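Section 4.2 – Deliverable D4.2 (structural model, holo form)

The reporting period included a commitment to supply a predicted holo structure for the target in complex with iron/sulfur cluster. Inputs used:
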Amino acid sequence: MPGRLCFIQPAMAEQTPRYKTYDSPAGGWGAAAATAKVLIEQSVVGKGSRALLSMNQPGGFKCPSCAFPDAACTKKLEFCENGAKALAHEATKFRVTRDFFAAHSVTELMEQSDYWLEMQGRLTEPMRYDAATDHYVSVSWDDAFALIGRHLRALESPDQAEFYTSGRTANETAFLYSIFVREFGTNNFPDCSNMCHEPTSRGLPHSIGVGKGTVILEDFDHAEAIFLIGHNAGTNAPRMMTPLVEARKRGIPIVAVNPMPERALIKFTEPQDIVQMATFGSSAITSEFVHIRIGGDLALLKGMMKVLFEREAAGETVLDHGFIAEHTSGFDALRADIEAQAWPDLVEAAGIDEAQIRRCAEIYIRSNATLICYGMGVTQHQRGSELVQQIANLLLLKGNFGKPGAGISPIRGHSNVQGDRTVGIDEKPSQAYLDRVRDVFGFEPPRAHGHHAVESVEAMLAGTAKVFIGLGGNFVRAVPDTERSYDAMRKLDLTVGIATKLNRGHLVHGRDALILPVVARSERIETAKGEQFVTIEDSMSNVTASRGVLDPASEHLLTETEIVCRIAMATLPESKVDWASYIDDYDLIRDKIAQVYPALYEGFAARIQAPMGFHLDIPPRRRVWATPNGKANFLVLPGLAVNAPVYDPAMLRLATVRSHDQFNTTIYSYNDRYRGVYNDRMILFMNADDIAARGLEAGAKVALETIGTDGVARRVDGLTIIDYPMSRGSVAGYYPELNPLMPLGFYDKTSGCPAAKSIPVRIVGAAD
Ligand code: SF4
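Output (structure tokens):
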């Protein structure tokens, strides 16, 4: 096959899979080596190294990977191994040109792996699908925008279009996209946060009035106890390891709750600690590792709360009664629910013993300032939104809001996923916000709620959706029920992929299809008004400027902002919005953001000049609760289950996870060194006793079948069993490869978030 072949690594399929327990510390020399390797692999050793010196630095650009905040930039190197991978893959020397598309039909490209597609390099010019030849062919920007305008204007209703946003999209672009789509007439905003922290955005406001974390980075310096629930920091927010190492050095207890004993939660070497590196030293991270059963977090949280109430009943004062009386509502209902829980049920549901639950409670009781961080292990369940509320319950009982070292911290996985929501990417916008849009832009926005990610696929399957526009991302690989999602996408009249790299989402397309290449985060934005910068909001509500430092990968690229403006101009010839003005001057966009969000962004253009940007107001940090009753609310989740029961003795709960060499659906390699997996992604991590109980052996090839309720058969074959210290009844494997097992309807009803961490499956013999 012509085109770029992996000249550093033969096609991964040829490399022999290896599985070798990894017992070195995470981070350290392994991280340094992986950083060097990716720069070499992408042939950007010089260019990439120079760019890394500007990443996450004042005046530089924000890492395009996760959303962990930057410390006060006291260090010359403010990036981690996975940030370096994201940058190297963005700055790569390799290009996907019109010749590449001439050489490869879409059908041929569909046979290639996600990894192979990623390794082909940066897109260079706009391409349109030619059904006659099954190839993408180059198209002019003007023709591309005209085509989109024609398709959108031809729709019977604006609700027949789906407008997807990836968390890489900067604030300025996301804001304009939200205004364009609303002037067009719909709130159909499926976005990547629908599949990760939507339970935080939809569940937490009922508890404390905001759908964001209340913790800032400095709180780690003041915490007296830290809980990490359902999150793998060493892979998904690696720079978080630094404050954790510092906390351990202060003797602060860290409790990690996870069905998988992730390496970085156990031992970590700080790559920038010269002594540790020189001596091959490391720090123990977790002082209490809770090997929870998948979905057992609820029982752990209720068990800890039960201990608090028992201690109170025994005459001790362990609750913050002053805080509870002044700031909360619903205390009695919560106590009644908790006191009704029986220890044997709690132990059974959690999958750990009572003693460990009591130890966790003791750590919590002794701390006057506790912060709880969490990830997908909490949100991706059928009752994920309510589970998030239980974390808030626990924190409220001891007044752990509005004081240094305390609070709740959802760790976001994509660089601006939180910012996109803040500036309007929201399928359920408030009426007050819509009023402000009307007042600022002079058009009446749609008031009916739109589609989240799963609903948009359902609309495609039902034939009510006709057009899909993807502002970044790899939608069809990120959503559940892969085969049905492919069918859904292929039913559309038009699909548009706005992206830096080629991915499968561009190959699973509508009758008409466009690929529109963009200037990347690390690249300079030059307009008629001079150099422009964008802004990013991280997991802890810091808003900082991001200025690219590299030349764009191709002279034919446009910025995301220009693309959105020109789609709007081609679709809305009578628009009330001066789209053209925003193409060249991003300060004008920030002025509009400040007008639509005065409480958050007043004086935006001036405040963003500060080297480290500014922090958005989070009222619970001031013990102010923007809830209907003006209080922080204790909310009861009856029972001990976060997923519907499944009565099948063969059932295992499957968690789909990232490998260490993966960012969302982007595959950097087939290795997952911290879990001891090399050259293989078709694996199943499984507990030794569960393996034996099924008469299987490690290394056996098996298939997984979903235990579903909708009559659709779902199966993935060719999985190698890895004997891994999973908690009993819990198995894990990689997405997107295992997304075919997740039914479209298997999601948290409050938020629409797919329950990707608790899919009920059974093992069946592998197909020959
Ligand atoms: S921690 Fe996240 S944001 Fe920071 S450099 Fe690493 S991947 Fe990028």
